[in-house]
C-alpha cells in the first residue's frame, strides 16, 4: 500500500531529488502547497504573494519506509531553525513545512519534531499543517536535477549519496 506526505524543504528541485534516492519512495512530484490562489504558476509563487511553499509530494511504499523515517531524513536535509530560508534561497516560498493528509500521521510528526528539538539550541521553525491544497508545478520543474544534472541545487551532492544508502531500521 502506498501513502503520501508533502514536504517543503526550500527549493523543490533538490528536495525532490533527495527523496527520490530513498528506498521505498515510489513517486515524487514538485508543486506548491497551502497557498491562497487557484492554479498558481511558478512565476506567481516566486513573488511571495500567493502564500505557497515549494513542496514535494512524496508517495511511498509503507511496507518499505514510513513517515517517521522520511521525517528523520527530512531533518538531515534542512536547517530546521531557519525561517523562510534554506541555503541561498530566501522568501516565504522557501519555508520549510510538513503537510499531512492523514490525522494518523500527526502523532508521528509530533514525536519526530520533539526528538529533533532535543538536538537543537534554537526552536524549530518548520510549520506543520494539514494539507489544504497542492498544485503541481509545470513539467520543466518535475525531475529537474535528472534533466539538468549540473543545475542549481542548495543541497550538497553528498546528501544524495547518503539518501541512497539510508535504510529504515
Structural write-up:
- With 169 residues, the chain is of the alpha+beta class.
- The protein is built from six helices and eight strands.
- It has helices at residues 12-20, 42-46, 67-77, 106-117, 144-147, 157-165, and strands at residues 2-9, 25-33, 53-61, 85-86, 89-90, 96-100, 127-130, 134-136.
- A six-stranded mixed β-sheet has the order 7-6-1-3-2-8, with helices on one face. Strands 4-5 form a two-stranded antiparallel sheet.
- Helix 4 (106-117) links the parallel strand 6 and strand 7 (127-130).
- Helix 1 runs parallel beside helix 6 (157-165) and helix 3 (67-77) runs parallel beside helix 4.
- It starts with a strand and ends with a helix.
List the helices and strands and how they pair.
Blueprint: E1 2-9, H1 12-20, E2 25-33, H2 42-46, E3 53-61, H3 67-77, E4 85-86, E5 89-90, E6 96-100, H4 106-117, E7 127-130, E8 134-136, H5 144-147, H6 157-165
Parallel strand pairs: 6-7
Antiparallel strand pairs: 1-3, 1-6, 2-3, 2-8, 4-5
Helix pairs in contact: 1-6, 3-4
Short description:
The chain is α+β, with helices and mostly antiparallel strands. It is built from six helices and eight strands, in the order βαβαβαβββαββαα.
Q: Which architecture name does CATH use?
A: 2-Layer Sandwich
- The CATH class: Alpha Beta
Unreliable runs, pLDDT <50, ≥5 residues?
none
Spatial order of strands in the largest sheet: 7-6-1-3-2-8
String of helices and strands: EHEHEHEEEHEEHH
Separate helix tally: 6
How many strands, what sense, and barrel or not for the largest sheet? 6 strands, mixed
**CATH-defined topology:** Peptide Methionine Sulfoxide Reductase, Chain A
Report how far the terminal alpha carbons are from each other. 19 Å
Structural class: alpha+beta
Q: What's the total number of strands? A: 8
Q: How would you state the average pLDDT, rounded?
A: 96
- Oligomeric form of this entry? single chain
How much helical structure, as a percent, in the residues?
Answer: 25-40%
